[in-house]
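Could someone model magnesium ion with this protein?
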Amino acid sequence: MVEAIGVTKRYGPTTALDAVGLSVAPGSTHALVGRNGAGKSTLVSVLTGLTPADAGTVRFHGRPAPHLADRDAWREVVACVYQRSTTIPGLTVAENLFLGRHPLRAGRLISWRELRRRARELLETWQVDVDVSRPAGELTVEQRQFVEIARALSFGARFIVLDEPTARLDGPAITRLFEQLRQLQRQGVTILFISHHLQEVFEICDTVTVFRDARHISTRPVAGLDESDLVADMTGEVRLPGAARSAAGDAADGGLLGAAPVMEARGLGLDGAYQDVDLTVRPGEIVGLAGIASSGRTEFAETVAGLRAPDRGTLEISGRPARPGDVRAAIRGGVGLVPQDRHHQGFVANLSVAENATMTVPERLGPAGTVRPSARDALARTLIDRLDIKTDGPRQPVDGLSGGNQQKVVMARALAGDPRLLVMVSPTAGVDVRSKETLLSNVARVAAEGTGVLIASDELEDLRGCHRVVVMFGGRIAAEHAAGWHDNEMVAAMEGIGHA
Amino acid sequence: GSSTKGGASSSKPLVGVDYPRADTDFWNSYIKYVPQFAGQQGVTLKTTNSQNDISKLASNVQTLISQQVKGVVIAPQDTAAVKPTLQTLAAKKIPVVSIDTRPDSGKVFMIVRADNKAYGEKACRFLGTKLKGKGRVVDLEGDLTSINGRDRTDAFNACMKQNYPGITVVGEPTNWDQDTASRKLKTDLQGAPVNGVYMQASFALSGTLQALKQRGMLVPPSNPKHVYIVSNDGIPQELKDIKAGQIDATVSQPADQYAKYGLFYIKAAIDGKTFKPGKTDHGSTIIRTPQGNLEDQLPAPLVTLDGGSYGGITSVKPDDTSLWGNHLGG
Amino acid sequence: MPDNATVTLPGMRRLPALARLRDLALIPAIIVVAIVGQAVNPVFLEGGNIINVLQTMSEIAVMVLAETLVLVAGKMDLSLEATFGLAPGIAAWICLPAGGSAHGLGWLGGAWSVPLTLLVGLAIGLLNSLLIVRFGLSAFIVTLGMQITLHGMLTGISGGKTFFNLPSSMLYIGTAEWGGVPVSIWLCLVLFAAGVGVLGWTRAGRSLYAIGGNTDAAKAAGIRTDRVLWVAITTASVLAAVGGLMLTGRLASVAAAQGTGDIFTVFAAAVIGGVSLNGGKGTVFGAFTGILLLYMIQNVLTLAGVPAQWIGAFNGAIILVALILSRITSGKRQE
Amino acid sequence: MPDNATVTLPGMRRLPALARLRDLALIPAIIVVAIVGQAVNPVFLEGGNIINVLQTMSEIAVMVLAETLVLVAGKMDLSLEATFGLAPGIAAWICLPAGGSAHGLGWLGGAWSVPLTLLVGLAIGLLNSLLIVRFGLSAFIVTLGMQITLHGMLTGISGGKTFFNLPSSMLYIGTAEWGGVPVSIWLCLVLFAAGVGVLGWTRAGRSLYAIGGNTDAAKAAGIRTDRVLWVAITTASVLAAVGGLMLTGRLASVAAAQGTGDIFTVFAAAVIGGVSLNGGKGTVFGAFTGILLLYMIQNVLTLAGVPAQWIGAFNGAIILVALILSRITSGKRQE
Ligand SMILES: Nc1ncnc2c1ncn2[C@@H]1O[C@H](COP(=O)(O)OP(=O)(O)OP(=O)(O)O)[C@@H](O)[C@H]1O
Ligand SMILES: Nc1ncnc2c1ncn2[C@@H]1O[C@H](COP(=O)(O)OP(=O)(O)OP(=O)(O)O)[C@@H](O)[C@H]1O
Ligand SMILES: [Mg+2]
Ligand SMILES: [Mg+2]
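Reply:
Sure, complex below.
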């Protein structure tokens, strides 16, 4: 079906792809896994004709790939959901869905009514409820992700590439996605599926290819394979996953004894998001805030970090009432934040890793409002090692990093100030297994050192390390589980089954 | 000047005046004079400002027409592009007086201007005489796209070539911008010695003086290093500088006369008077232009400290009461 | 009307039908000005005066249309004002007889002048595209450099003098009338109508919004971004040439300074009309209301006989006020 | 030097030490011009001429510095050129005696003129910030409106006349010399040095890059984006006022048109110097090389005695060439 032979791609000094080969059999669902920066997305943009390869060839059905400029031809052979959002904020959802293929009426004019009708139809099949004439820029991350998926799958291409489609989706959404994928599989559509959730690979893929450090490592049938083999291939070392969990476990014993809460919310409410939420986080305690997209978890977390001002209720950070909606005050009060959408709020793309990582701690960079590059780079290096960020060095611009490594930079920015309260929203979205361990074990470590942690997420791995998980549903706290809960009860709680 | 109260009565006919621009000393004194003389000449005014943009002039005249003016006074800075406007006015039988410039084509009742070529000529004669026909002179030209600027340049160069071949002229276009003027002058001062400067308008005045001062070349005529400076316009500051011996001469543009006779002729036209070539009662001559229009050529006196005569050109002293610069508020 | 119009009208999200209302944002302002104008001077609403306003704005309006194309596609073109002067200038230069007061070259007959004008516009557009799209230079600065160069070339070929006694074919659209209304007004309206249609109801037009909004995304969606940009930038230059032709006709001449400084008005009109400088937002109709508003106010000022030396200050104040008005009516922060 | 310089030099990621090389991108060009200039006219490299170039560029250069601040922060200021004229204009107007040829108001003594100039700059800056930061209006169009308004106000208060016989305190920085070098050159260099320091090595400076690059991320990192923007925009206006003061001093007068049209040069210099119009990129030193290059070339042209009518075309062509040069040396597509 599709065949990449000896594809090489360099970015300046970085080699993103080193003579890799990949061959996807017709009708198969082929997983592509690898650590952050392994070169997956780069291969994707080569396979979909967005970036030219420095060397090597790509063939579809044994025929050479179309000319780069011939976008239509590409669109016929392959459809893709890219890791980075490709919706156009200014245009409506409907138009985003049918960009470049608007339904026409007499005189080759666009029929907007028809366009909206088809858009509604399309989204209904995905049970996404958004007004199709809203600008895409106003959608939530999840909604936007679905728009992208729906668009890609609606081309009717026989070969579909999905680069971390689940990274920005919550549980039920992922289930919906997989239903659709199975349908396509039945129709004999070929799929290239990229994800850092290995269980997803086992769930819907039949073959899996592993990349490591820009090289092709292995391609094997999924059947009869177990997770540790994959991780071994990805990391190049044999080591059992779940280390993160135990790390968090250790923290659990150390924590909880902390006296005064670092964060205390009383009857906190934000119109249209969440209502009378009471929540405390103690030093050394890791509190999970579970819930699906619409549950209000994200908004609550952002309120704690000072990104939003609550409409009612009180919020205290380490005993002192927080200045509502003042991030700077929050940071100075000892709050560290890992925001939800890294591209939007996480980093300044064209600034260096160092500048981004130290942005929250200006006062440490030099006396009297000055910044000593040496001091900054030194501080940055410690963070790079601590989070094991794959980069050319503190001065590489963040836009040169792979998705997962960018996320680590955001994490570094949050940890730079040794916060007393660490607020994280979906912290491991798009982060590979090992990096996920690194991130979570860091969380465990800072907790052990007495920092309170609030993780707003729906990723079970994120939540597993928590001492307790508070589940939100429909803007209210719906349940609370102590550590050691079972996946399905947690999922059920998030779906609001049993109450509401 | 905004429109004076009271509509157009037969006694005080409504006259439209379009000001070419409001951002130069010279045209502002003109703008100041027009309302003053309007009363004197017995006309009511509607005024517009075409901000040195000929297409604005066209549409301004349109608005004047739709306000039923009986006559129009314009000062087209582009003598070619004004043609369609003149045609429109002719079609509406509205008499036109053109101030300061001579339209390349089209019918006007009277042209009131001081010959820009004469400015260049006078400047050339003065410098030529003072420099005894040899030396290096910088000509700070106006803007190549301005007809008046070009007339002054051409006349100056022609006169120099013909009468003082020993003098080299360095022409520097300045877009009427004093910073550009002073920058280019300074650069020229780097090269061979400069003996004279001709500023085609007063805009370059103080920039030039500063440039010379900075290089210690601002010395009295007695000193052989003296640089002779001729300016143009006759604004009060120039007259002061001549008295102070800072500059040596200027050509006084008759801003007041422009206003006075512009309105005088338009009123006459409305009253059905007619004129023919020959001397006038105000020391000027009316001639017939190649285009067949009448042109009242107002005198533009050369002003020098001693009021002497240079190369056959008589001049007046800077305190001469006939100079508009001497009876003007500011 | 393009749905993206909703962007700037959050309050109306649930009412797509009202989407196009955003385009009407300036209509209230325009009505107010009309009333004020009438109060200031009863001449204002007379047919003659309205035609005068429309005709004097028609040439610049065509440039506004051109700029809108480029802005929506996420680029800028500062050289339009220079093309506006140079295109007819070169045509006149080549077609006018050599020697005499005409200072032309006399290479070609007068019949060639109009095609030549468009050709020059085309050439400039292609050059701009080459530098911006092909070589990836900053559009702002490329076209700034082009603007200065082209102005300079016009001064150069004309020696600063004005071209006149132009071939009659060049004068036609600027002078002729159809049904008592100058051709330039008709032409301007037709071009804008076409613009509304293309940008609102054709794939090519919509792809401009896509490119202006997010080029990579547009590429991913199968749009040939480079090609679309070439076409947009080149079309803009040709339109500017047409505008210049209209003015040339009306003034029966090409002044060496034709177009100088107009680009400011063009941008002001576009932005006031709701076109974003960051690309991907704004409509042709909005841009039209923008330039119309500006010219109406100018006309009112003239009729009101504002003191000459304060005209400038007024013009600026107007742009600010119009801007604030459109900010209020759209209720959205601007980039 | 700001690390973001590396951004435009992918090939050098491994060599942070060379990062600053990006700033030197124009140095080769400058050297070439120097050689050509010397060949054209031996006067070129004489001290007198070099001082002449530096002094005549110093005033505009200060505006370039100001614009760089604003551009790095992701905004634009077109009104600087007007502040450049109006600030000293108002000071002169208020301090010059009423009546006589001075046409001032005579409200305050000459000693006040300099503080007044700066005050006006400050006021304009605050007004700009209010409209842009507080009301969220488009910086481009706000400052365009301001530009026209302020130019108009200068024409208005001066009645189009030039202010002469200024208080001596206004003339000082434009005329005095220290060690044979005009004060304005010293001042210009000092300001640029300060600029390099602030944008390169202070929090406030780096925060400008953060804001220009991604305002939301900067906010989320605790940077007081609004406050930083207020400071940047206001400082820029004050700097423009200083520049205006320098020119006023040098020409011992304020012309009604002072500053008009300079903004084009300012932008050209900044962008050629590597400052991005999309914010977050570029350095003060780069901007300096930009303006220096432009003025050196201008000077060479004057010395070479280029035919008057072609000067304009040359200037434009130069900007294009310089642009292409910087494109090649930086090897990165520009926005
Ligand atoms: N535009 C770019 N400029 C410079 N370097 C780049 C660019 N894009 C990718 N790289 C480099 O190429 C390598 C591979 O990046 P890529 O995004 O393909 O990794 P990935 O496998 O997709 O990682 P992730 O799972 O985090 O998305 C990374 O080291 C990255 O630094
Ligand atoms: N490392 C950094 N990167 C980007 N911006 C920064 C950095 N450090 C500080 N800033 C911002 O630069 C500005 C000046 O920094 P500074 O720490 O002096 O704040 P400030 O103005 O003194 O406020 P306060 O008086 O409350 O400390 C502030 O807006 C700050 O948020
Ligand atoms: Mg990736
Ligand atoms: Mg501080």
